[in-house]
Write a structure and sequence with these properties.
4% strand, membrane, 216 residues, two-stranded antiparallel sheet, globular, mainly alpha
Length: 216
C-alpha cells in the first residue's frame, strides 16, 4: 500500500483531534454533532463538523482503519483534489440523507465519519471492482462488488427496521454520494465497468421505490 498521502494523514489527524476533544468536552460535542433541531435553527456547520466527531474510541478506530485501507485505492485513481471532493461530498450527502429521513425528529442526533468513509469505499469499488475484501470472522475473500451491494441492502434493512443505534441512512447516503460523485469525476468508468455500475445501482433503485411507496 505504501505511505499514506499527506491529505489522508491530515483527515485522520483532524478526526482524532476533534473526537478526543468531544470525548472530554460535552458542550463541544453537543455544539458540533449532527442534530436535526440545531440544523433547523440554521446551524449548518453541523453538517460538516459532525463527520469529525465519534461516540468512542472503537467508533473512531474502525472508521479510520477503514479509511486507511481504502484511501490509497481512490487516491491512486483520482488524485488528492478529487479524493477530497469524494470524501467531503459523501459526508454531506450522507448527512442530507439523515436530515431527509429524520427531518421531523428534532432530537435526532448522530456523529461519525461513516458517511464519508462509505463514499470512499464505494469509490474504491468502482475503481477496482476486481479487488477482494477480508472481513473479521469470515476467512474467505469477498468480491468488492458483492460487499457493496450487500452493504447497501443491509443499510436499507436497517433504515426500515431501525436496527441498532446506527445511522444507516448516513451510511447509505454516503455510499450513494461516493457512487455518484465518482462517476461524475471519472466518466470513463461507464466504458470500463458498465455492468458493475448497473449492479451497484440496484440498491439505490430499491431505496427510491420503497421511499415512493412509503415503506421507509
Amino acid at each position: 500500500m505504501g505511505n499514506l498521502d499527506l491529505v489522508v494523514i491530515i483527515i485522520i489527524g483532524a478526526n482524532i483531534l476533534m473526537s478526543l476533544k468531544g470525548f472530554n468536552d460535552f458542550s463541544f460535542f453537543e455544539k458540533y454533532k449532527f442534530n436535526v433541531g440545531g440544523l433547523r435553527r440554521g446551524e449548518q456547520i453541523r453538517m460538516l463538523t459532525s463527520g469529525f466527531l465519534h461516540v468512542d474510541m472503537t467508533h473512531l478506530f474502525f472508521n479510520m482503519l477503514t479509511l486507511y485501507f481504502f484511501a490509497p485505492v481512490v487516491l491512486s485513481f483520482a488524485g488528492n483534489i478529487k479524493f477530497l471532493v469524494i470524501y467531503f461530498g459523501s459526508l454531506l450527502v450522507g448527512n442530507l440523507f439523515s436530515l431527509f429521513f429524520h427531518k421531523d425528529e428534532y432530537h435526532y442526533s448522530a456523529v461519525g465519519a461513516s458517511g464519508a468513509v462509505s463514499g470512499i469505499i464505494y469509490a474504491g469499488i468502482l475503481f477496482r471492482p476486481d479487488m477482494s475484501l477480508y472481513l473479521m470472522f469470515i476467512p474467505i475473500p469477498i468480491p468488492a462488488y458483492v460487499f457493496g451491494i450487500g452493504y447497501l441492502l443491509y443499510s436499507i434493512f436497517g433504515m426500515k427496521n431501525r436496527v441498532g443505534n446506527i445511522g444507516h441512512d448516513a451510511h447509505f447516503g454516503g455510499a450513494v454520494g461516493g457512487y455518484i460523485i465518482t462517476l461524475i469525476l471519472a466518466p470513463w468508468l461507464f466504458q470500463e465497468n458498465p455492468l458493475m455500475i448497473g449492479l451497484l445501482a440496484i440498491p439505490i433503485l430499491i431505496l427510491f421505490i420503497l421511499q415512493k411507496l412509503g415503506k421507509l
